[in-house]
Amino acid sequence: MFNEEKRFGGPIPWGMVGGGRGSQIGYIHRSAALRDNHFNLVAGAFDIDGARGREFGVNIGVAADRCYDSYEAMFAAEANREDGIKAVTIATPNHTHYTISKAALNAGLHVVCEKPLCFTSEQGEELARLAESKERVVGVTYGYAGAQMVHQARNMIKRGDLGDIRIIQMQFAHGYHSSEVETSDPGTKWRVNPATAGPSYVLGDIGTHILFIAETMVPELRIQRLLCTRQSFVKSRTPLEDNATVLIQFEQGIVGTLWASAVNAGSMHQQKIRVVGSKASLEWWDERPNQLQYEIQGQPSQTLERGMGYLYNEDEAVADNRIGAGHVEGLFEAWSNLYHRFSTAMHLKDQGMLEPDYWFPGIEDGIEGVRFVENCVKSADNGAVWVDYL
């Protein structure tokens, strides 16, 4: 079971940028961070409209004088307080992530940032150098990677249960944007605008999620080259894609496919991954996160269930069951596991004890997501050609 007594220090004084009234992702961040008392929300710049953000902050329990009109004002004021924030979550549209993350690091804050971390790998490398010089942690919220059965798969693959890995099939293909929903949905509108979303829509918004799941399950994955084709089936979204297919060759001789789509009409989510080895295969689906399909060649298919004693529990994230087997855990538990790891990493970093192999989605993972999108766009925009991965 999850050990709620295990901690390295008191709750981290924490602030948020964005995530205000009506923000689904803001609520998920707060629920996850506050779940285990590892963070204490004491400040925020919740909205581009300062008055609205202040009203919202007060309504969720933040003192009025610590609800700020801008992130700049928050960072400056909190730096002068003895009880000021030590970490910040950035839950704003994509085009602001790099600037706010840079300002937060310069203010000496640990950072948890929505993905994409930035628009270019050069920006990401700059943030990585800054984080290293400031000795700060940067976490990136690939939230699905906190699901325990993802780590069960990671350990089984590491143990050699699948044999040599040959094929990885990845997809994240929902149908919610199969029509021009952005005309009435502000949350979609900025995602399909290059000025605010960046060079990609579905590849960056959801494709990087399933790629990171693959990289979590098979940590040694290194992309050698790829070929991408992308389409804008809702034409008003051009040049951003609402559907993309990527063929991937990894350095280890592994081959992969990735399908990212927002126009898979009728689909709820369809975030799935299948890892095929020489002896067996594993399949995980985020709509059934508590189960892992395990198929050994020549034997009946097995469904492994979260929380059971037969699981391979060497990894802490697998052992951290928040409730007994048979009870459904899902997105909020997965995000809470990430925030538990973010807080632990921050405490360890502050004490100079953070080991390189401590697992959490960090800044290098955020940079890799940006690099993947860059290479996909390069391939697709040059006629769906193979490109060497740079």
Please describe what this structure looks like.
- By secondary structure, the protein is of the alpha/beta class.
- The chain has two domains: 12-143, NAD(P)-binding Rossmann-like Domain (Rossmann fold, 3-Layer(aba) Sandwich); 148-317 and 365-381, Dihydrodipicolinate Reductase, domain 2 (2-Layer Sandwich).
- The chain is built from twelve helices and 14 strands.
- The strands form two sheets. A nine-stranded mixed beta sheet has the order 13-12-11-10-6-9-8-7-14.
- The longest helix is centred in the C-terminal third of the chain and has 20 residues, at 331-350.
- The mean pLDDT is 95.
Features:
alpha/beta; Rossmann fold; Dihydrodipicolinate Reductase, domain 2; five-stranded parallel β-sheet; 34% helix; globular
Q: Can you summarize this structure?
A:
The chain is α/β, with parallel strands linked by helices and 390 residues long.
SSE order and pairing:
Blueprint: E1 12-18, H1 24-34, E2 39-45, H2 50-59, H3 71-79, E3 87-91, H4 97-106, E4 110-113, H5 121-134, E5 138-140, H6 148-159, E6 165-173, H7 186-189, H8 194-197, H9 202-217, E7 223-231, E8 243-250, E9 255-261, E10 271-277, E11 280-285, E12 291-296, E13 302-305, H10 316-319, H11 331-350, H12 363-381, E14 386-388
Parallel strand pairs: 1-2, 1-3, 3-4, 4-5, 6-9
Antiparallel strand pairs: 6-10, 7-8, 7-14, 8-9, 10-11, 11-12, 12-13
Helix pairs in contact: 1-11, 4-5, 5-12, 9-12
At the first level of CATH, the class of the largest domain is Alpha Beta
Total number of strands: 14
Based on the coordinates given, report the CATH architecture of the largest domain: 2-Layer Sandwich
Q: List low-confidence stretches.
A: none
CATH homologous superfamily classification of the largest domain: Dihydrodipicolinate Reductase, domain 2
> What is the first-to-last residue Cα distance?
42 Å
Order of helices and strands: EHEHHEHEHEHEHHHEEEEEEEHHHE
Largest sheet: 9 strands, mixed
- What is the CATH topology of the largest domain? Dihydrodipicolinate Reductase, domain 2
Count the DSSP helices. 12
Report helical residue fraction: 25-40%
Proportion of residues in β-strands: 15-25%
Radius of gyration over C-alpha positions, nearest whole angstrom: 21 Å
Q: Report strand order across the widest sheet.
A: 13-12-11-10-6-9-8-7-14
Look at the helices and sheets and give the structural class.
alpha/beta
The rough form would be described as: globular
Average pLDDT score = 95
The overall number of domains is 2
